[in-house]
Each structure stands twice: as structure tokens, then as C-alpha cells.
Amino acid sequence: MEFETYKGFNIWGHAILQQEEVMQPERYAASGTITKGTKLIEASGILGFFDADDDAQLAGLDWARAWIDNHA
């Protein structure tokens, strides 16, 4: 999980390991979360699937930044 502060909000990018078949390569679902203080502001659903956990986390952070830019 990656965390940063953006325009006064706390944002997280999540990488959720997906294992549909044990013999297949690992894949990660991306999601994002936005909080301010202790209050949940918004959480995404699954944003997409990625081969690397870092890519999934970055997609979650990108989504959170875009949400803030359009709603705050």
C-alpha cells in the first residue's frame, strides 16, 4: 500500500493480489482510498488489473488525485 498527502487529503493506492489459478503468474487489482483526518471521503472499486503491485498502487494514487482535482 502506497500513501501520500495530496491537497490536504490522505490518499492510498492499494494492490490486491489476485490468484484465480495457482499456476498462473500473480496479478494485482488496483484501488484507491481518500481520507481527511479520520473521515473516509471516497473509495474506488477495482480500477484495473496489473502484473506488478507497484503499478496497481500507482493507479490507485492516480485515481485519488484525479478524484480530488474534480471534487474538492
Automatic annotation (TrEMBL):
It comes from Paraburkholderia dilworthii. This is Transposase. It comes from the Bacteria.
